[in-house]
Amino acid sequence: MEAIDIGVLSILPPIIAIALALMTKEVISSLIVGILSGTLIYAFNTGGGIVKAVDVTFTLMAEKLGANASIILFLGFLGALVAVITMAGGSKAYGDWAGNKIKSKRGAQFGTALLGGLIFIDDYFNCLTIGTVMRPVADKHQISRAKLAYIIDATAAPICIIAPISSWAASVVSQMSGLDVNGVPLNGMETFMATIPYNLYAILTLIMVIVLCVTNIEFGPMAKFEKAAREGKEHKGMAASEGEEDELSRVKISSKGKVYDLIIPILALIIFAVFSMLYVGGYFEGGMTIAEGFGNTDAGSALALAGFGALIVAFLLFVPRKVITFKEFMDGIGIGVKSMVGAFIILTLAWTISGVCRELLNTGEFVGGLVAASNMPPAIIPAIVFLVAGGLAFAMGTSWGTFGILIPIVTMICAAVAPELITATLAATLAGAVFGDHCSPISDTTILSSTGAGCNHIDHVSSQIPYTLVVAGCCFIGYLIAGVTANVWITLGSSIVLLLGTLIVLNKISKKHQE
Asked: Does the keyword section mention Nuclease (predicted)?
């Protein structure tokens, strides 16, 4: 299949996908319709009809699925690992340990944030685990359920999107791999690593969580909920119905688990991932540096090897000690893989619509030409992309769907207009998508965070939004600075200073209102 030049029609598939996502709040059907609209345009302009459009759709989908099969394998292994760790009781053991060791409110908040940092491999695992194990500790130290839900949510997606070994990284790397920038294909893992210091929303959100844990800064609705918790007047109740919880949240948890049953498998995953990336990248064959080994690796294959290795470690850790039985371990694998089916579907559709735009319709070249002709200052592109990604993710309630729609388009625009800003702009895409997902009331992680914390869902959303907007405002200014300087350290440093200054001012205003 050869790409065709059809002008303005080339932008219809992503526009249709975005418009439907905004109207229906459902990303899978929106991506499917966007894909089919693109293949119909391609078929009708190459002498075919509906049958050819369907054939092209499934041919392209099969090619993308085959090319990214290792990513699917990694996500399956990761889902299985999450399930068996949960069933073994490692997470519950951490909660019991924390309940005995933590003696203050500040310690309880730090303990919650620390567990969020430790469980970086998947946001669902993060939300459900932290909420379950830390809720009694938070109640004991008069931390409001709204504050607990915020800490859970703020250490879920923001951690996962800057952790190279996570389900989110696997998704992003797969979507970046092979994108063409002026004839040079991107290395997915290398590009993802370069975006990390530019991912202002993730970094500033984590800094804000630390500041809130250390200080008593409270503003907006959160101050009201914290006051009610201190006075013992807070209403506590599960936010979501049982139907909104997945099968993983209802598995039988062993009473024999230890804290190391959580830590060892995760450490094994990290260690195996590092060595697997170097192995796949050819480092152990000699003749290259470690950096070259990482840069030359195939992230999907390496992560799949690491996921399998970590699962073997979990088996050897749990089954011989009879923490869980062999049958329970195998059942856990099935439950974990099923928990990733939604991710499989969204990724496959994202890869396919990206292929329609890049390989069939030349969407990027057309959009890049429009941007170049518009005389838009290239310096504002990262900031504009941040806002667009945030709005789209907020409306759809999904980061992954936003990545799938915007990453190929953003790459092509930058390649045509501002190649020097491609890293900052891709990072702005990721940051904006996480921002929109973080504060969206229909986001799965937002729902799971309120569910795990036992917080009324609307209370969680209303108390969290002012915090997310503060960080997003600092990020917007940061991306304007990035567009002007194209320097990551100036961008990051100025954004951090701006955030800290804003929090100091807001704290003073909040205290005046409380007096």
From this structure: no
